[in-house]
Amino acid sequence: MIAQDILVVGGGLAGLAAALNSDPAHKVAVISKVHPLRSHSVAAQGGINAALGNNPNGKDDTWERHAFDTVKGSDYLADQSAAELMCKKAIPTIYELEHLGVPFSRFPGGVIAQRPFGGAGFPRTCYAADRTGLVILHALFEQSIKKKVKFYNEWLVTRLIVRDGKCLGVVVLDLTTAKIMPIKARAVIFATGGYGRVYLRTTNAYINHGSGIGIAYRAGIPLKDMEFVQFHPTSLLGKNILITEGARGEGGYLLNNKGKRYMADYASSAMELAPRDIVARATQTEIDKGNGFEGQYVHLDLRHLGEEKIKKRLPAIREICMNFARIDPIDEPIPIQPAQHYSMGGIDVDESCASFVEGFFAAGECASVSVHGANRLGGNSLLETVVFGRIAGEEASNYVKGSENNEEGEKVLLDEASEIKSRIEEWMRRDSGIKVHLLMNKLKVIMSEKVDIFRDKRNLAEALERIRKLREDYNQVYISGKNLRFCQELVNIIEFESMLDLAEVITLGGLNREETRGSHYRMDFPKRDDKDWLKHTLVSWKDGKSQIGYKDVKIEKYKPVERKY
Ligand SMILES: Cc1cc2nc3c(=O)[nH]c(=O)nc-3n(C[C@H](O)[C@H](O)[C@H](O)COP(=O)(O)OP(=O)(O)OC[C@H]3O[C@@H](n4cnc5c(N)ncnc54)[C@H](O)[C@@H]3O)c2cc1C
C-alpha cells in the first residue's frame, strides 16, 4: 500500500502552495484528477490583492484597510481575525511569488503594477495582464518540480477515511488503469477547489464538480456557509466564459439597452466597481426589467479604453471575445450575463486550516476558513489559496511530527477500497437504468433556476424536494460502456453523489437563512438580520442524512454596519 506522511489532494494553487511549504523531511505527495496545470487556478485572470501601495492612487493603502474592505465586502460574515491574517500576509506573499519567478505586470518605474477591483478602497490588485492565475500556477509548478514533489496525476480521490476522529488516508481511482487503491497518510490536505459545475451557467472549468467538498462531508466533516454562492456579473453570453473584473478595473462600463451606465442606480459612488454580489444583482435586475438585449444580456463596453490598453492589459479577454463571440472588444461592446463563479462556503476549518478531525486539513476554494463570509472580493481568492495553502502545509508538517504511525489503519483502508470496488461492479453489472449525465443536467437546471441570484422560500423548497428525488434516481445509474479506463461516465457517477450532497447543503442552508446577506438574496426577506442571522451555517452528514447547525462569527475590530458603496 502506498503510504505518505502528507498527502495533498489538488494540484491547483492551494495544493501546490501546501506541498511546497510542507517540511521536506516528510514524504509529501500531490494527487490530482487532472494534470496540475489544468487545475482551474490556471484560468484566473484579473489579479491578486495585497496592499503594496504601488499605485499612485493607492499610496495610503495598508493591510488593515485591505482587511476592513474584506470584512465589509463579506457583509460582516467573515471571521475578522482570519481576514486580518490573510491581508497581513498578503504583502510578503506577493514578494515571495515575485522572487519565485512570477512575471507580474509593472508600472513604468519598475514596481509591481496594481489595478482597482470591486469593493476595494484602493487600487491593490496585482496582476500579470489578464493571465494572473496562469503565471502563478506555472511558477509554483516549476518550484514543485525543482523540489522533487511527488505527483500522482489523473487519480481521482473517491473517499476520505476517518476513524475515531483521526484521518487515516484516502481511497483513489487511477483513471488511467481504473484501479481502486487505498493510500495511507498521516495527514491529508484537501485543496480540491470549487463546485461551480453544480450550476448550469458557470464560469468554472468542467472539472469543478466539487467532489472534494462532498467527500469531506461524507467523512463527517461539517460544511460551512454553503448557501453563499458567488455569481459573477460579467460572463460571456451563452458560453459563460469569465470576462474578468479587471476589465471594469481598467475602466470598462456596464451599459443597458438604453446606453445607460445602470450602476448609477445601484451603487452611485463605486459604480461598476461595487462588490460582485451588488453588480451581479443589478445586472440581472436590468435584464429582468427589460433593459437588456433579447431578454438575456447587457453590454460591457471597453471601446473607450482604446486599442493599446486593451491589447496590453486585457489580451486574453480580447482573444476570448474574438474566438467565442466573434467580436473584437476594441470595436464592439461585449455581451455579458451573470453566472455562478465561486464558492464562499466549504469545508469547515480554522485559521490553521485544521478541521475537527485530527490530521485532516483543507485550504483554497474548497475550504471555508472563513475570510470571504457572505461575499468574496475579486482578487482575494488567489490570495487565499497561496496564504492558506502555505499555512496548511506548515500545520500538517507540525502535526505529522507529533503523530504515530497507525498500523491498524491499513485494514480499514483496504475494507473501504473493496467496498468501492463492489459499487463499481454493481454499476457495471446493470445493463439498463439511468444515464448519469441526464441526472447531472437535471440537477444543474434546478440549481440555475431555483437556487440562483434571487431566491425565495417557494423556489428553494421546491429545489430541495427535486434534489432529494434525484437521489432516488441516482440508485438506478449504470455504466453503459465496457472499458473503465479514462471512463468519464464512471467519474461522473462517482462525483455526482457529491454534487447531489452539495446541492442539497446549498439549498438547505439558503432555505433556512431567512435574511439577505452578501450573495444570498431572499426576495421574501430582503434585509440583513444581524439579530438572528449573524452566524455561520454548519451542515453535517450524520446518520445518513444532512443536519444543520450554527456557530458564532468572530467579530472583533469592525462592528457590523449597513454596507454602502
Ligand atoms: C475563470 C476564473 C477566473 C478567476 N479569476 C480570479 C482572479 O483573477 N483573482 C482571484 O483572486 N480569483 C479568481 N478566481 C478564483 C480562483 O481562481 C480560484 O478560487 C482558485 O484558483 C482556486 O484554487 P484551488 O487551488 O483552491 O483549486 P483549483 O485550482 O480549482 O484546483 C483544484 C485541484 O483539485 C483537484 N481535484 C479536485 N477534486 C479532486 C478529487 N476528487 N480527486 C483528486 N483531485 C481532485 C483538481 O484536479 C485540481 O488540481 C477565478 C476563477 C475562475 C473560475
Short description:
With 565 residues, the chain is an alpha/beta fold. It has helices spanning 13-20, 63-73, 80-99, 132-146, 211-218, 246-249, 276-288, 307-313, 315-324, 380-402, 409-429, 436-450, 457-474, 488-512, 530-533, and strands spanning 2-9, 28-32, 48-49, 114-115, 125-126, 150-153, 155-163, 166-174, 179-190, 223-224, 229-236, 253-255, 298-301, 334-343, 346-348, 360-362, 367-368, 454-455, 521-522, 535-542, 545-552.
Task: Report what the structure shows.
By secondary structure, the protein is α/β, with parallel strands linked by helices. Among the domains are: 236-339, Alpha-Beta Complex (Flavocytochrome C3, Chain A, domain 1); 409-518, Up-down Bundle (Methane Monooxygenase Hydroxylase, Chain G, domain 1), CATH 1.20.58. 36% of the residues lie in helices and 19% in strands. The chain contains 15 helices and 21 strands. The strands form 5 sheets. Strands 1, 2, 6, 7, 8, 9 and 16 form a 7-stranded mixed beta sheet that branches. A 5-stranded mixed beta sheet has the order 17-15-10-20-21. Strand 1 (2-9), helix 1 and strand 2 (28-32) form a beta-alpha-beta unit. Helix 1 (13-20) packs parallel to helix 4 (132-146) and helix 5 packs across helix 14. The longest helix is centred in the C-terminal third of the chain and has 25 residues, at 488-512. The radius of gyration is 23 Å and the shape is globular. 57% of the residues are buried. The model has no long low-confidence stretch (mean pLDDT 97). Flavin-adenine dinucleotide binds at residues 9-15, 31-34, 36, 39-41, 43-48, 132-133, 156-157, 191-194, 203-204, 207, 211-212, 242, 244, 342, 364-366, 378-382, 385.
